[in-house]
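Folding Task

Wanted — backbone structure
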Amino acid sequence: MIQVENLTKQFDDFTAVDNLSFTVEPGEVLGFLGPNGAGKSTTMKMITGFIDPTAGRVSVFGKSVSEQPLFAQQQMGYLPEGAPAYGEMSVLAFLSFIADVRGLKGSQKQERLDVVVEQVQLASVLHKTIDTLSKGFARRVGLAQAIIHNPQILILDEPTDGLDPNQKHQVRELIKGLAKDKIVIISTHILEEVSAVCTRALIINQGRLLLDGKPDELEKQSRHHNAICLQLASDEQDAEAQLKSIANIDSVESLDDRTFMIFPKDGQMLLPQVVRFLDEKKWDVENLHLEKGRLEDVFRNVTAQSHSNQVTGKGE
C-alpha cells in the first residue's frame, strides 16, 4: 500500500503541493488528474523519493520513503514524463544497463530481459539506438526499464502524452496487462486515459485534492449523465421546442438542424419517455444514444471552482 499523509511541497513562496492525503491499495490503477501546473509531477517525485517534501509523509508498505528510500525505490518502477533514456545506446544495451543497476545478475537478469522484451514487444528494435525509435517504441522502452525488476508499484508520469491514437492504444493495453497484480499510479492531464485504463481517479488543482472516486462515479456528476443525443433523419418543424415539452427535461441544445442534446433534470433516466415521444410523433430517427457522463464536465467544473475560490480567498 502507498499512503500519502498531509504532503506539502514549497519552492520559496510557491506551494506546489498543499496538504495532500490519499492511499492506494494493490490492484488499483489510480489516475492522478489535474491541469498543467496542478502539482502532479511534483507529487510523483515525492512518492518516488526523487525530491523531499516540505512537510508530510509518504510510506510504501508501511515504511517511510524519506527514512528508507532504498527499500521504497526497490518496490517501484518509475517512468518519468517524456521517458528519458540514453539515446546513443541500443535498446538491449540500455535495458541490460538498467538491469545491472537494479541488481539483477546471471540467469535472473536474462530471464527478466526475455520476459520484458516479450511483454513490451521490443524484439524488432532491440539492436536499434534509442534516438532512432518512434515515440511509441521510446515509451515502450521507458515502460520496459520501469518493470525490469518486476516491481510491486508502477509510477507513470504522462505515459501517452504526444503519442498518436494507435500508439496510445498500444501503451494503454500494455499498462492494463501490467496492472493485474501491482499498484499503478498514472499522472495525466488526458481525461480519456482515466476512462480507458484507471479503476480510480483523483483530481487535484493548485496542489489540493478536489475529488476522489471511481471514474464511472465521477462521470455521474456530469451534466451529460443520462443525457440523450438525438439525430433526426429529416428536419422537423420546431423540433427543439417540442422536445422541451417532454416531462423532466432540463434543457435541449441544438447541435445542428437535425441533432439535439437532451439534458435531464438531476440526471434522471428519460430514454423511455423520449422513445415514446418519438414514436408518437412518428419522427424518423437516424441515431439515438444515451450518454453515461463526461469526466471532462466534472474536471472543468471542479478545477474552475477551485481557481475561483483561490482568487476570492474562499479556499484559504
